[in-house]
Amino acid sequence: MSGEVITRYANRAGAVVELHTARFMTTWTRSGPPYAANKPYEVDGYNWRCLGCKRYGRQGETYYDPGFVDRRKAENDAQGHADDCSALPPEPEPPQKQEEQRRRGLTAWVTSLVTTEERR
Ligand SMILES: [Zn+2]
User: N or C: which end of the chain has fewer CB within 10 A?
Assistant: First the structure.
């Protein structure tokens, strides 16, 4: 559902609010509400998600459009959320886990070197 990140905003506690492209189903015509389409159809648009509080800009149940067609509206909404939200960024992974991942990565790298070496 979510695509490429276009802009990143910082909320009041430094967590990131990402504005990204999104494809979603809409029930409105190109003119927007109150002009309902005969059939729901898929459009290219935008949405945002907050990595602090995990909220999304628009979701299917709250709105008829689970995303924004208008980029400027999406930007304003994302900026508005960033200004209001004070959820902290996610906790960094504990150092042991990072160390473990580093070690695993190093092992894979050495293994690939050895394998390449053996092939020659
Ligand atoms: Zn938030």
Answer: C
Smallest CA-to-CA distance from 57 within 118, 1, 114 is with 1
Say how many C-beta atoms besides its own lie within 10 A of residue 90's C-beta: 11
> How many angstroms is it from 13 CA to the middle of ligand 1?
9
Q: Which of 11-15, 28-32, 94-98 has the highest mean pLDDT?
A: 11-15
- Entry pTM: 0.72
Residue 4: φ, ψ to 5°: -70, 140
Give bridge partners of residue 46 from the DSSP assignment: 21, 68
d(CA 85, CA 11): 6
